[in-house]
Amino acid sequence: MMHNGTVSGVSASAGPEPATPQRAAQPSLHPAGALSVDVEDYFHVEAFADRIRYEDWPCFPSRVVRNTQRLLELFARHGARGTFFILGWVAEREPALVRQIAAAGHEIACHSYRHAALWRLTPEEFRADTRRAVQSLEEAAGVRVVGYRAPTFSIVPRTLWALEILAEEGFLYDSSVFPVVHDLYGIPQAPRFPFRWELGAGRSLYEIPPMTVRLAGRNLAIAGGGYLRLYPMWLTRWAVRRVQHREGRPVLIYLHPWEIDPTQPRLSGRWKSRFRHYRNLEQMEARLDELLRTGPFVPFRELLEWERQYGQLASVSPLRFGRFPPEN
Ligand SMILES: [Zn+2]
Prior knowledge:
Blueprint: E1 33-39, H1 64-78, E2 82-86, H2 88-93, H3 95-103, E3 107-110, H4 123-141, E4 147-148, H5 161-168, E5 173-174, E6 195-198, E7 204-207, E8 212-215, E9 218-221, H6 225-230, H7 233-246, E10 251-255, H8 271-278, H9 281-292, E11 297-298, H10 300-310, E12 314-316
Parallel strand pairs: 1-2, 1-10, 1-11, 2-3, 4-5, 5-7, 6-12
Antiparallel strand pairs: 6-7, 8-9
Helix pairs in contact: 3-4, 4-5
The protein binds zinc ion.
């Protein structure tokens, strides 16, 4: 679906500069981009989850506050606002950081409490983890949390039961379903653009999939996290132009605060994990800076509001992709 008008980022009447956080609404033009940060520390990641126990997290020197503040400074320079999916464990320890993020005009959203991939949890454990995370976020920031992103994009065919729980817990949208083939995550057949899950009892939940581009008949993840660091920048530039101009869709970015921290302590782990985690950290900030120029960028919730009002959100049943509800 193409939207009318759009899409190089700046609408005809908005002037050449990226908009300020208080920019006037341009209701008929979709946002050029939506930005998201998964706020966690370098020792929380799935890549090292087989080496680092949850119980040992307090032993690691934390760098998440300073790295997140550097991102806030970078976003402010671009007038970019985004959604910060924050780990409950971090929010409990650093409530002032959560307040600082909210005060800068960004959306506060949930990235679980203890960063356990959903395939390691029972539905009951998932619900408890989510409640604890939401409570720490809402207590820290005094705002209601309506967006969720699973650790490691771990809503996959065998964990689709989580959608029902998210809807029951009052979430408006999820951003955990990556429509790609990957060794850990992904539902390759899921829609590439925002859609609505049709759930039980008339409930629904919106989905905002991370960005992909079609290449050689497959979906290629682009402009986020390791993909932004690992792929050559010419490929990212090509993909961003293609999504913005050819498909007429917003650019979605995701990243982690540790990805702009080349001097973080090095952890031991498998070769592939170390490659994915440490590769091109020193280039990330410049790459991000370049991408942010394609803005303005808004939080996911604002993108979703636009899509609900002006887009044509497809309705999708989870039954299309796997067992649902779970056979426990
Ligand atoms: Zn994460």
